[in-house]
Each structure stands twice: as C-alpha cells, then as structure tokens.
C-alpha cells in the first residue's frame, strides 16, 4: 500500500508540474519560444468568421435605376417587376424568385432602390432596409456617381468611400446580422460602344442619360477619348472602393467585378435607351448575383 501511495504521489506531482508549466506559458502571453522542431499552436479566434448563408430567407434591394428596371418595359420609366433583384417577371427570374420562390418573394423581399440615386443616397435606403432585418441586402450603386453632366462633376473617390462606409454602418446599426451582396459598377464604356451603333439610342442619350460618358457619342477625337477614359477610370476606382470597404465587414460579399466584366451586348440593353439593361440584361444580372450568393450555377 505504501509503495502504491508513493507512486501515486509521484505521478500527481509530475502531472501538476506539467499543468503549471503550461499555465505559466499562457500567463506570459505565449511569448516563450516553442521547442526546436515544433510550432506553437495558434489560439482559436474569439470571433470566428460566420458561415455565409447561401439560402437567405428574406432580402432587400437598394441602389439605383438598374435595380428599378428603368427603361426595361417602356421608355424613361421604372419597371420594378423585371428587376434583377426583386422582380416578379418569370422571364427575368429575379434573385428573389430564385432564392425565395414566388410566394416567398412576394412576402419577404422589398425594393428600396431609387432611379437617379448616387452613393450619397444609399444610407437613407439602408435605413429602410434595416427595419425588416433581412437575411440579405443587395447593393448596386455607383453608376450615377460617374454619370454626371461632365467628367469634372463626378463624385470623388473619397466621397464615394465615405458614403459607402456610412451605408454599411447604417445597416449594421439596425440589422447587424444581415448579409450584404455588393454588385460592381457596370463597364460604362462598354455600354457606350454597344449603344452608339443605334440611331434611336443615341437620340435618347441626348435627353441626358449619362452625359459624361455618352455625350457626343460619335466623337472619337483625343478630347472625347480622354473624357471617356477618365469616366472609366473613375468607375474602376469605385469598384476598388466597394471591394475594399466590403472586405472590412464580415458579412459583406463583393461580386469580384462580375458585373463590370460581363460583356453586355445589344440583347442585354434596353431597346429604348440602349444603356440600361433590357429584360434579358436583367436576367443576366440575376444569374450573376445568384451565382455569387449561392456559389451554384444559375438556375434557368
């Protein structure tokens, strides 16, 4: 019995020393070097990155005329039923229809986008979005910041960044758990190159659609080319801002430039202004968003 008791005390002493040694290392903040040939184990994060929900149960769309389906159904008017985000049109098969089904989209999706909106208008839309505490908020904004009466009147990159940061803070104040999908600003120069081949489209452009890019559409001299390149450069800078700011929010996902990179052709452009998306173009935007949110191939 004595031998067994002595042996037990010895084991307890060894184990206790090992435990105290480990505790002492933690108390020192893990500063002690790991033994040669080993790696110190990383401590688990106190705030692990949340898992992205690819099947959100509700959604809100914010943004500008593209999300309102402007000029997709008739000239110079909104047509929200064909919106890529929340529309009910079966031909478009909007993101809401794909994610929520027809009945779910009707009851659990909202569209607060406003034609003509710029990034500075987004915080007010986010305030409305937060009321519903949606599982998902889609953002498509920035084209109107570049589409100004002149290139010199475009929203500065700093102002654009500040407004987008404020938009996310506004949403987080009321809906901290909402996921955010951010679409890139479209390639405006590509839209100009496609639409300038249509006489009717160019006539509508004169009514004031994106003058900074579409003004004097047939001019290809040095001045006109420099102006369009300046607008294009600003769009690319806006997209960099969207990517960077979104990366600071654990529940925000940028589309990686998918909308900007999409090669919109004449079928994807409005037959009334040859600039905004047509029904077909809206359907393509819905496909891009669905793939970006779910990671799955778009459904037909």
Describe the structure.
With 300 residues, the protein is an alpha/beta fold. The protein is globular. The protein is built from eleven helices and five strands. It has a five-stranded parallel beta sheet, with helices on both faces. Helices cover 45% and strands 7% of the residues. The protein starts with a helix and ends in a 6-residue tail after the last helix.
List keywords for this structure.
5 strands, 300 residues, disordered N terminus, alpha/beta, 45% helix, globular, 11 helices
For the largest sheet, list the strands in their spatial order. Answer: 2-1-3-4-5
Q: Which stretches of 5+ consecutive residues score pLDDT under 50?
A: 1-42
| Largest sheet entry | 5 strands, parallel
Q: Report strand %.
A: 5-15%
Layout of strands and helices, then pairs:
Blueprint (H helix, E strand, L loop, with lengths): L1 H26 L31 E5 L31 H14 E3 L10 H10 L4 E5 L2 H4 L10 H18 L4 E4 L5 H8 L3 H7 L5 H4 L7 H25 L5 E3 L3 H4 L17 H16 L6
Parallel strand pairs: 1-2, 1-3, 3-4, 4-5
Summarize the structure.
With 300 residues, this protein is of the alpha/beta class.
